[in-house]
Amino acid sequence: MEYSVEVRRRFAAALAVRRCIPAGCEICTSAEAEDRTLGVWARAHIGISNGRIVAAQFDVWGCPDTIAAADLAAERLRGVLLEDFRGLDARAMAQELDVPTQKLGKLLRLEDAALAAAAAAREQIEKGIDNGSITH
Question: For 39-50, how does the pLDDT look when each residue is reduced to its tens digit (9 = 90+)?
Fold first, then answer.
């Protein structure tokens, strides 16, 4: 299979660098999504400070397109106000990375994980939990 230049670049970067959610985030959450029929599993980790997503990363099992999309998704999450986050645009990410249409379902699992992590963060805020971790 041929992968785009951007997928190859992000795939190499994702394998080379293991980021972590920095200490000092007021809220840290993680959530998973998977589809075994598609061969994809993703865990989104987000760190929130002052209502803003200041750190984001994904643990991913999947093809190079999915791993590259996870890197792009984490990049797009950083800096977003939690209250404004309504999801990732999987179609736009697929187009930007030149990911084949038949793999869109894999990218949607990244969105599912990110949405669940954001929901967990909102839940912590509502409950007044600070500097904890809820995993769904």
Answer: 999 999 999 999
* Single pTM value for the model: 0.83
Q: 42, 46, 62: which is closest to 112 by C-alpha?
A: 42
Q: Kindly report the CA angle at 98 between 92 and 101, in degrees rounded to 5?
A: 75
CATH number for the domain harbouring residue 67 = 3.90.1010.10
In the sheet with 52-61, reading across from the earlier edge strand, the strands are 52-61, 40-49, 27-35, 133-135
Alpha helices in 34-127 (DSSP H): 64-77, 90-97, 104-127
Burial of 123 (0-12, 13-18, 19+ CB in 10 A): middle
Structural domain harbouring 21: 5-135
